[in-house]
Amino acid sequence: MAIPARTMPVNALKKGTPSSAPEVIAASKPMSAVVAATSTNRSLATEFEKTPLADRKAFIADLDKKRKNAEFGEQILFLIDRMEDIEKPVIVARLISAAATGKLPLSKALRVSKIVDRAFVEDLKTLPQFQAGSPTNRLIADALFSVGLLTGDGLAFFEGDTTARSGTTYHLNAYGQILVEYGLAQD
After folding, report:
1. Can you spell out the DSSP letters for 80-130?
2. pLDDT of 64-107, one tens digit each?
3. Does residue 168 carry a pLDDT above 60?
4. What is the number of other CB atoms lying within 10 angstroms of the CB of residue 157?
5. Measuring CA to CA, how many Å separate 43 from each of 81, 105, 138, 156, 157?
6. What is the DSSP letter of 154?
7. Secondary structure of 15-82 in HEC code, one letter for each residue
8. Phi/psi at 105 (5° precision)
């Protein structure tokens, strides 16, 4: 018997592995989508398992106490179901782990997770370069700005730009900094 979709992610976090995820997803998806979703769920669960067990338990207990476990589970399930890249769930798991360990408010972790969903993963990997103020491709910078990870001010020159005016100078905003520190950092 499948665990209801509204509680599956929280139950998966408690167990450490989403063993029933294929059953939940299989009811409404073609087989190729089931395989992809199962891999995605495993990526998220495997990464989240790196969070100390005591922190995971406290995080889930806090969600239970606030009666937010079903809402949280639905948000995560819908978010990872939409993701088209196997690397994004790992990034999201790192953000949720930061929330579970008290390094980041859950609301910010979820907001940045939703930004990750809207961005091209290869563009996300360029974010640490912005900390040093390194110029990057204008199209990538514009894309990262449009999803909410960069702040723009002034004019700048970009690699490969031959015009006299290149565009806006971009800097990491608070969400970009959160993503670099917690979502893109390798353990």
Report:
1. HHH---SSHHHHHHHHHHHHHTTSS-HHHHHHHHHHHHHS-HHHHTTHHHH
2. 999 999 999 999 989 988 888 889 999 999 999 999 999 999 99
3. yes
4. 15
5. 12, 22, 31, 38, 38
6. E
7. HCCCCCHHHHHHCCCCHHHHHHHHHHHHHHHHHHCCCCHHHHHHHHHHHHHCCCHHHHHHHHHHHHHH
8. -65, 145
- pLDDT tens digits, residue range 100-140? 999 999 999 999 999 999 999 999 999 987 755 555 677 88
Residue 58 has pLDDT above 70, yes or no: yes
Q: Is the pLDDT of residue 20 over 50?
A: no
Q: What are phi and psi of 95, to 5 degrees?
A: -65, -45
Q: How far are the Cα atoms of 83, 114, 168, 175, 177 from residue 128, in angstroms, in the given order? A: 22, 19, 18, 13, 9
User: Rounded to whole angstroms, how far apart are CA atoms 96 and 10?
Assistant: 12
Side-chain half-sphere CA neighbours of 81 within 13 A: 17
**Closest of 120, 133, 114, 135 to residue 178, by C-alpha:** 114
88 compared with 154, residue with greater pLDDT: 88
Q: How far is CA 42 from the centre of its chain?
A: 14
What DSSP element (H or E) covers 178?
A: helix 174-178
